[in-house]
Amino acid sequence: MRDNFTFNFTLIGSSSRNMITYDAKSNIGFDFDINIEVNDDDENFEPKEIRTIIRNAIDRVAPRYGYKYCEDSTRVLTVKKVNIITSRIIHSCDFAIVYNCTDGRQQYIRFNKDNNNYSWEYQGKGFGDLDNKIDWLKKKKLWKKLQDYYIEKKNSNENPAKHSRSIFAESINEICQKNGYHK
User: What are the residues whose beta carbons fall under 8 Å from the beta carbon of 53, sequence distance 6 or more?
Assistant: First the structure.
């Protein structure tokens, strides 16, 4: 990829906070999330080009380490490591391609499957200000309460389309709201 651009990556969500969980009753295994921030300040590449370059690079390497090829979903590229004998997902990794704006907001490359179109979109409401809320929870000694609440919500989630990152953001917002967080 260096012929095109460089990038920085950051573990995010539960993996960055040592809160990865595993549901032994499911076939999903555990997952972790990584943000990839491309260094393309001159905007030489369109969103589709960026995502394609990254997907192709991952696909060249992933099978060597026992991963399937990338799945291209709406928000992320996903690789999965599958136990061939049991057909169970051992773990997966979601790669979001992001841009951190100077105003504190974040954009990501969104794949609209209906239109076969890639575009930069702002992160949805509820994901903003999470770092400040996390800092506030830690200062108020509510981190353990958040961890317990998150695990409870995640384990009782019956919607397979609801991702851990959404449950985590909901948990943060709800614990903050219940405990008097003010911006």
Answer: 1, 4, 5, 45
